[in-house]
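User: Is it possible to get a 3D structure for a protein together with its bound compound? The compound here is manganese (II) ion. I've pasted both below.
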Amino acid sequence: MSDMERRDVLIASVGLATAALAAASPAQAGDPSFMNNVPDPLLSGDELPTFKFALEKSEGKVIGNSYGKEATVKQLPISKGIAGVSMRLEPGAMRELHWHATAAEWAFVIEGRVRTIVITPQGEAETNDFEPGDVWLFPRGHGHVLQCLGTQPCHFILIFDNGYFSEFGTFSITDWIGHVPKPLLAKNFGVPEATFDTFPKQEIYFARGAIPPEQPSAPLQGWKLPAQTHKYRLLSQVPHATYRGGREWRADVTRFPISTTITGTILELDAGALRELHWHPTADEWQYIIDGQVTVTMFGSHGRFRVETLEKGDAGYIPQGYGHSIENIGERPARILIGLNSGTYQAVDLSQWIAGNPADVLATNFAQRPELFGKFPRHDVFISGRDGPSK
Ligand code: MN
Ligand code: MN
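Assistant: Yes, that's possible. Here is the predicted structure of the complex:
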């Protein structure tokens, strides 16, 4: 090929690439990457909005001694990317068969025991029993049911990778069957119409009955298990990483393969410890204080900086890319549940970023002498103890 021909091929391929770019223009309506680039009016003001919600102090939906307390965009408007629910089930109670049309569900058990049954689109069903420290993940749209196991109540925190999941996105089986004409139901299931005379006419939400058998019963179709499990024993593992001021357990997609859209972590901060200044390039962050008292800072550019104090039972939210930190201001260890709406964990920690630059660059940037930066950490600190980072 002559140089001229080569040039023509090059021009032709550049033309093709330009055409492909134009076809995939982010200005197309409904393109999520375009939507992500539109400034959220809530985050465009002179001040940052609150990023805290007193979840456990809210009323929620109460039936008997069971409850579901929500933090969606309604309660915490900033939390567009992730919603959370605190749910308690009394013995014999069941969160009825349902699915979420617009979100995956991730859960962490705080207290008691829970049994879940989930169906996959391949028709496989998995039954799992959970104890405190265990995690489940149900992909978006997969039908499931939750039962309290044993004679003690259970309490768990649910995370959904869509802040709008609740209002428009949760579908319960009694709500559906209660609104379908009986002839259609009879035809669907091949049973007499009268079968449905005594079925609930509206959504039950929490069903109540006998305490489930300790050994789970076989499904009507028999055991037909999926290849990937929906259960991960998060706190039974050794911590993912240990630092001078605390430790972290992490369930990302490399450890919990079914969890492709959510990473869940438990952060334990000793008294006075600090999860250092950082941001997440690819995910929003949802926080729940399991125990302790912390201050969370958030940086939103243009001089906007906000601090909130979160106590046991409070939820917090940090939008994707926003700078933040978490400091234990109590006298006891603090335990924080953190959910990110990406199965792959990514963070840029400020100590690491500084360590990734030479002293002369830092000296110019901060108008300091270069020698000063010899005192800064040369590694990722992640968690700092009361007296500073590990050396
Ligand atoms: Mn659910
Ligand atoms: Mn974070």
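The two ends are 59 Å apart (CA to CA). The domain at 60-232 is CATH 2.60.120.10 (Jelly Rolls).
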